[in-house]
Amino acid sequence: MTPLQAQQLLDNAECVASADTVQAVINRLASEIAGKLAADLPLVLAVMGGAVVFAGQLLPRLNFPLEFDYLHVTRYRGKTQGGAVEWRVLPGQNVAGRSVLVLDDILDEGETLAAIRDKLHDMGAARVWSAVLTNKDNGLTKPIQADFVGLEVPNRYVFGCGMDAYGLWRNLPAIYALKDK
Ligand SMILES: O=P(O)(O)OC[C@H]1O[C@H](OP(=O)(O)OP(=O)(O)O)[C@H](O)[C@@H]1O
Ligand code: HPA
């Protein structure tokens, strides 16, 4: 995709959550998470690469001790339809016996987060929590619900705030929906 095509993708998209809305949502999530996990010394795991913006903005708002690490799993790989879950970086061995909080940008069909939860349980996590910046309102019965949900987004392909469209635009501070084809 050329820079001009990438700009047109954004120009034709619809903003579904402003940058201010996203900031307010992350503030709320930080206080909800603190209410449940402040005394647990949790291991917080960002799901690369989509969670990078969410994690980067949430972590400084969590005012309690925690450990941070990451895992990398992918199933969209720059496309707008998901495929098989592919592990690129497994969680570290430090999950055993821990209260683990998984951070991700979006819960769409739920396959990714369910696979992560199962892997963490297999590795001996004492409790697996999850926080997602967005939950797609797609009417599906999902294999997992997140414990902490920022925003509901419509049943369209969304991008910005860590979420990519064709590999691009994770850097946007607001959330947009691709124009319907
Ligand atoms: O609920 P699901 O339908 O499983 O989709 C959600 C997952 O899809 C995206 O990752 P992606 O596969 O695009 O990986 P990436 O962020 O590394 O590109 C997103 O970051 C979530 O991890
Ligand atoms: O709508 C989406 N946008 C970006 N990444 C995603 N991963 C699953 N669904 C989406």
Automatic annotation (TrEMBL):
Gene3D superfamilies according to UniProt: 3.40.50.2020
Pfam family, one: Pribosyltran
InterPro entries named in the record: HGPRT (IPR050408), PRTase-like (IPR029057), PRTase_dom (IPR000836)
Catalytic activity: IMP + diphosphate = hypoxanthine + 5-phospho-alpha-D-ribose 1-diphosphate; GMP + diphosphate = guanine + 5-phospho-alpha-D-ribose 1-diphosphate
GO CC terms of this entry: cytosol
RNA-binding among keywords: no
Domain annotation Phosphoribosyltransferase: ranges: 22-164
Highest rank taxon of the organism: Bacteria
Sorted UniProt keywords: Glycosyltransferase, Transferase
CDD domains per record: PRTases_typeI
Example GO biological process: GMP salvage
GO molecular function: hypoxanthine phosphoribosyltransferase activity; magnesium ion binding
Protein name: Hypoxanthine phosphoribosyltransferase
Organism from which the protein derives: Thiobacillus denitrificans
Coiled-coil intervals, chain numbering: none
